[in-house]
Amino acid sequence: MHKFLCFISLFFFLGKGSLLGQETSFLKKQKLDNFIKTHLQETQQTFNWSIQSDTIIMSGLLNSDSILVIGFSPPSMKSRSLFFDQNFNSDAWNKARREVKQLVDDYYNISNIEVNKYPLGINSNRPYFCVKVYDYNLLHSIRQLNTVRYTDVMTFVLGQSFLKSDSGCSPVTIPIEPADTVGVSPEAVISWHNINHNTQDGWNKSNKGQGVNIAILDTGLSPTQSKLNADFDEGESFGRTVTKKGFFAPTIGGPYDGWEDQCGHGTSMAGLAVGPKGFNNTPAGVAYKANLISYRCTEDVIINTTQEKDGVSDALFHAADTTVHIISMSLGDLFFNGMVADAIAYAEGNGKLIFAAAGTSTFITNGFGVIFPADMNETVAVTGVKEGSAPYERCETCHDGPEVDFVVEMERVSNTSLHGVTLGEPDLSITYVGGSSCATATTAGQAALILSNDLSMNSAQIVAKMMAASNFFPNRDDDHGWGTVDLDLALSQPPFESCDDSLNYTITMEITNISFPPTSDGIFNNTAEWVVEIEGQSFFFEVDIAGESDSPNEFLNNSTCGFYPMVIQLGSNLCGENFIDNINVITHEDDGGSNDCTYNSTFDDDYSSTNETILFSNNTFAHQGGGGVFTFTYNLYCKANERPELEVSGDDMLCVNGTDGTIDATATGGVPSFTITYNINNGGDQTLVSDNTGLAQLVHSPISQGNFSYLFSQVESAEGCISKINETHSLYVSPVDYAQGGYGALTGTINSIKDYETDGVIDAFQVLDSLAIVDYDSGIEINLLAGFEIKQGALFYAFINGCNNGNGGLNIIDSDSNEKR
């Protein structure tokens, strides 16, 4: 009965009945397809249902499964950048949820239609829910609520599939060319495309991904591929873990079908990022010591069904609330989806670094731009290019564009069917995999190598290191971002540290918030198009004319210019400066007929150029723009360009009342002379100054016996660069004797190297354990008294030659000297 009623209702809604509320004509499938295709081709941007008219959205619903996702929020909570710490089950959120639900319930109660109006149910921990919508009036009423942020059609397939026709699930059966892998220890191989990025040098300089948790959101893992199951921690990948989760439901609102890959794509992506460096000549992943959390959340690589969008969103929310560091998404769609966007914003806000594929299509359709969610500011977009030097040519089926942040060389020029080599199916098989999918998983592994050397780094710091090690840096390419990452260079950079006035640093600034002034402009759509240029890097922001303040990702239009995280290289300070000055900031309001980032005095206005001083002790600076004051909130990350260092050597044993000893302190890393701070036995600080070669010398007069510890705590160069150090040199001055009636006899068990020197008498009760190497040097006599013992394996030397600063004597067994007692 229910199915019959739904069929009658749908038939009625497609006509001109009263439930539609007006004589509205909706687009048939082919016309709607053409409308969407035109948008994709002309704008090079994904299709966003929520900014379309009611008629277009209704047409999409009537030509699909009629499921609409509604994103809601309290009226004051529209910004996704604020979602990361929200309790979506709070009173304010529940009130907004109830308002939308009440409207839907009232409509269906009045219309007396029997339908499963909430096909996915309503999750009180999400800022959205799905509704079946067949009626224009209901759609229109929903969109009028001030608690509604977006209304997106969930399942819509654009004509023939415009993304890759096999949806990433067709296995590649081409045999692996001998030149496309190289053997590595213990019995594994490395793919040619990783060699091109200096991955092996990266392995030598990193912790290989150890301690990093990588989540791969894809089609799951093959249960038959042992390298991603029982043998995941074999060989040099020992000591790590794999976790397998399932968030995909084959039917709308049905149960999840488990973690197992039924496509093969997820298995290949996991192999690229984290495949084990083990045995059987299978390819090692980039981060072969990283932990893997595999999420099966899609059926294939296109996020285009209600179940897939729901699965991806749930997987993202789950990963966001765990110890995951990096998320890799070799998935996407030509349609923007608010549900998935909410989940991505939540995960990114909780510190997850998210890599997303720019898109892989047939050669006919890869003229489209970067797909969703790679086009979001919160993700790092990655695509593939052919091998060779820049300028790059995108891979045969890869999308590119201004949203792309990094690229990977993953397609042979000689044969466009030869791509990165990874794990496949069945067990122990290896295969080629290409497109932006390959590039994305590879880049996620690269980021894990960098992070594994310092697990305290945040996403912006990781991206900053990748940027600085990329071939286009500091000039971003229009289609290929920063270019390819050289892992040798990325992992040769000094670590980030707190900025202060002690050293000369290379300084990176991350802008975390911008307050834009109000403006009377906005003649097109009440939106001010602000262009902000800092040290030559331009960013295009679309802001309400009333002025707004938020994270830059809320306003940034990265298809025009700019990138997120908003990290900018400022240059270097001088030692002694707790600031960097002359930072050029330019702002103007773009009023031309089309968006661009270049100032045109004929069309644009509110131009201002200032030089600002960025203080290490602050986190904001203001810029006087032509239309008002801009306030920027920032974090600073510093890498030392040169650090004064100290090497200490010298005497470690002296005879009491004997010859003076010397300690040499040699300073490097700056301009001499160096001022060196030290103390003796934790006493007061003292200083000495080096010569023009950096050498300073201390003299120790042995007027009293005992242990002396020289602690060197600071070295300062002539230009004022200061390095805090912790170098210790120990020196021992021997006593007058080791006699029972004097300084004291030698007692106890010895299991290490010892040298006892004196011009007087040695009385010994010691036990020399098997690991002991002991030398007695006396000026008068050596008495081995009752209790003295040499165990098997120990070495014992004794000689009557007095205190000789540790030069030793003769072996008591081999010597026939009558000097021995």
Can you put this structure into words, describing what you see?
With 821 residues, the chain is α/β, with parallel strands linked by helices. The chain has five domains: 2-153, no CATH class; 184-490, Peptidase S8/S53 domain (Rossmann fold), CATH 3.40.50; 504-642, Immunoglobulin-like; 645-734, Immunoglobulin-like, CATH 2.60.40.10; 736-821. It is 18% helix and 30% strand. The protein contains 13 helices and 41 strands. The strands form twelve sheets. It has a seven-stranded parallel β-sheet, sandwiched between helices. Strands 17, 20, 21, 24 and 25 form a five-stranded antiparallel β-sheet that branches. β32 and β33 form a beta hairpin. The chain is elongated. Residues 1-23 and 812-821 have low confidence and may be disordered.
Quickly list its features.
alpha/beta; 821 residues; 5-stranded antiparallel sheet; 7-stranded parallel sheet; 30% strand; Immunoglobulin-like; 41 strands
